[in-house]
Design goal:
The protein is 34% helix and 24% strand. The protein contains 6 helices and 8 strands, in the order ββααββααββαββα. The chain has a 6-stranded antiparallel sheet with strand order 1-7-8-4-3-5. A two-stranded antiparallel sheet has the order 2-6. The longest helix is centred in the last third of the chain and has 13 residues, at 142-154.
């Protein structure tokens, strides 16, 4: 099983569009890149999913995590609407990136513009288990807002760990 990302970090964008990946997150990306140890380049491959226009975040996946998703997509019926949508999202609305020897990730200009990441912008790297969600701190991701509404509907005494019973027997 792949290591999970944990925690939330703030990271600034420099003048060249680079962001220093926090060391504890970088270790998970390194471990999730099968070619990292043998390549001797000091560069780790990652995949950034930027999604449709309404997404105000990107998701950074390790190679291992994205390959697991690709395998799941491949098991869906070819030509089905679900498979086509997931292929568009995870393949067509994504890009390959790498973390350099100094632990920095260069985000392409079109993604920096989409997210409002100008030089000096403080960004948020928020762990989501098998990926990291990156966004502008003044613009919480729309999917988080929906989760907060869902949680509020359960009431203040609800413990989300109660959902874990659904995994019994899997």
């Amino acid at each position: 099983m792949a290591r999970k990302f944990r925690g939330t970090e703030s990271v600034k964008v420099d003048g060249k569009g680079r962001m220093s990946i926090p060391a504890r997150l970088r270790r998970v990306f390194d471990a999730g890149d099968p070619s990292f140890a043998g390549a001797n380049t000091g560069r780790t491959q990652v995949v950034a999913v930027y999604g449709p226009d309404w997404w105000n975040w990107i998701e950074l996946y390790s190679i291992e995590a994205i390959e697991q998703i690709d395998e799941q997509i491949d098991r869906l019926t070819r030509g089905s609407q679900e498979r086509r949508w997931l292929e568009l999202l995870m393949n067509g609305q994504s890009t390959d990136l790498e973390i350099d020897r100094e632990g920095r990730l260069v985000l392409p200009a079109k993604l920096r513009e989409k997210l409002g990441f100008a030089e000096g912008t403080e960004t948020v790297f928020e762990s989501r288990g098998d990926y990291v969600q990156v966004y502008h701190p003044d613009s919480r991701p729309k999917d988080v807002e929906a989760l907060e509404d869902f949680a509020a509907s359960k009431g203040p005494e609800f413990d989300p760990r109660a959902f874990l019973h659904q995994t019994d027997g899997i």
